[in-house]
Amino acid sequence: MAHPTASSRVPRVFLPVLALVGCGAFLNVYSTQALLPELAREFSASRVATSLTVSATTLAMALCAPLVGLLADALGRKRLLVGALLLLAVPCLLIARADSLGHLILWRFVQGVLIPGVMVVTTAYVAEELPTPRVPAALAMYITGTVVGGFGGRFLSGVVAEAASWREAFHVIAASNLLIGLIAWAVLPRARNFVPQRAGQALPTLGSHLRNPPLLAACAVGFALLFALVAAFTYVNYHLADPPYRLTSAGLGTVFTVYLLGVVVTPPSGRLVARFGHRRVLLGALALAALGFTVTLAAPLPLIILGLAIGSSGVFVAQATTTGYVAASVTQGRSLASGLYNLAYYTGGALGAVLPGVAYARFGWSGAVAAGLAALALAAALAALAWPRTSGP
Fold first, then answer.
1. Fewer Cβ atoms within 10 Å of its own Cβ: the N or the C terminal residue of the chain?
2. Region 326-337 average pLDDT
3. Phi, psi of 388 (to 5 degrees)
4. Which residues of 187-225 are buried (b: 16+ CB within 10 A; e: fewer)?
5. Which residues, in sequence order, are CB contacts of 310 under 8 Å at separation 6+?
6. Nearest-angstrom CA–CA distance, 194 and 327
7. 39: CB partners within 8 A, 6+ apart
8. In which element (H, E) is residue 372 found?
9. Based on the number of CB atoms within 10 Å of its own CB, is 299 exposed (0-12), middle (13-18) or buried (19 or more)?
10. Considering the chain, what is the average pLDDT of its residues?
11. Which of 35, 36, 23, 169 is nearest to 96 (CA)?
12. Buried/exposed code over 249-277 (b: 16+ C-beta within 10 A; e: otherwise)
């Protein structure tokens, strides 16, 4: 649990570095999205095949998150977090040297194996080291960092690919991973409230989590959120690369500037939850996301970009709210609970990069949007049924 005396031990730079950690991890996750049309041309591959450069990473994140949760609950927090950030530079450098689409997908999968070492551990670290009232705001700051990283990976890859090559983009991301990892090692305090969990506790804790309906509903909500977001931001690249828009890699990377709205809308979500509760904030955010993605069905490019901005903002608030709910819904095995959530969340992302491609191939952009809207409707139904009406921090 969070400790009321922890605030005196947390340096002032804790929250900015927490945001930087989220940024560092998520620079890697979607870094190939703005490059998809270019990768399809270079490797003479189909749109669904090149989308595997996105889904391979998110699938690995999903599969490894629970295992990392178990490891973190046994071994600790900071060293796993910092080690994962530093090691992320290695697959980046190997991606830059990939001579086939298969090799590129392989190293993207390796990136996905390492990223849970950041995202799973950070949630538990914050929940344990900060007093309870500060946890929602701190997690919102971390999510803000992931938003910046999600934008930065797409934007950097698109712009650097236009100026030099897509391979050089991964050299830049590798250098960023090393720098952020060193900053986290130097600044973040060691975990003082961490209590190692014995190996024999893992199965009972897992059983407790699997009998927790609100937690399971939160996992399903996470699945739907990333499914919808990845569906939109994967297939909009093909939509806008085709006539009449014909955007280049740099142009597609610039479209992801809409992600920066998340920097504005995500931090207040902690205060909204404190006032209205997780359930109501989530349902409002889902409605906003559905409205935004519906707007993208309009033909003019400015309206498509506006719709992406509104839709992604809704998802970011929903994600921050759901992450906070996971931390609040358990009192032990927080890393394992976070791992289960991320298993569902990134499974949604992996499938969101591939399954809507079937709808896109048959119905175009409207098919991909319909798939995302169906996922958001599922998330709203699950939260309305399973989350308590008064669920607050």
1. N
2. 73
3. -60, 145
4. ebeebebbeebeeebbeebbebbeebebbbbbbbbbbbb
5. 288, 289, 291, 292, 295
6. 15
7. 32, 45, 50, 53, 101, 104, 166
8. helix 365-386
9. exposed
10. 85
11. 169
12. bbbbbbbbebbbbbeebbbebbebbeebb
Identify the burial level of 41 via C-beta atoms within 10 angstroms of its C-beta, where 0-12 means exposed, 13-18 middle and 19 or more buried: exposed
Residue 315: which of 221, 390, 249 has the closest Cα?
A: 221
pLDDT for the residue 360: 93
341 and 222 in contact (C-beta within 8 Å)?
yes
- pLDDT surpassing 60 at residue 364: yes
Q: What is the pLDDT of residues 134-144, one digit of tens each?
A: 777 787 788 78
The pLDDT tens digits of the residues spanning 24-56 come to 999 999 899 889 888 988 999 888 889 899 889
Residues 6+ apart with CB under 8 A from 92: 28, 111, 170, 171, 173, 174, 177
Three-state DSSP class for residue 99: coil
The answer to whether 156 touches 253, Cβ cutoff 8 Å, is: yes
The distance of Cα 323 from the centroid of its chain, to the nearest Å, equals 11
Rounded percentage of the chain residues whose pLDDT exceeds 90: 40
Exposed / middle / buried, residue 384 (Cβ in 10 Å: 0-12, 13-18, 19+)? middle
Q: Cα dihedral sign for 158, 317, 5, 334?
A: negative
**Amino acid occupying residue 204:** P
Give the pLDDT confidence score for residue 392 in this predicted structure. Answer: 46
pLDDT digits (tens, 9 = 90+) for 98-114: 999 999 999 999 999 99
Q: Cα separation of 303 and 305, whole Å?
A: 5
CB atoms closer than 10 angstroms to residue 298: 12
Residue with structure tokens 């989220």? 22
Q: Which helix (H) or strand (E) holds 11?
A: none
pLDDT of res. 73: 67
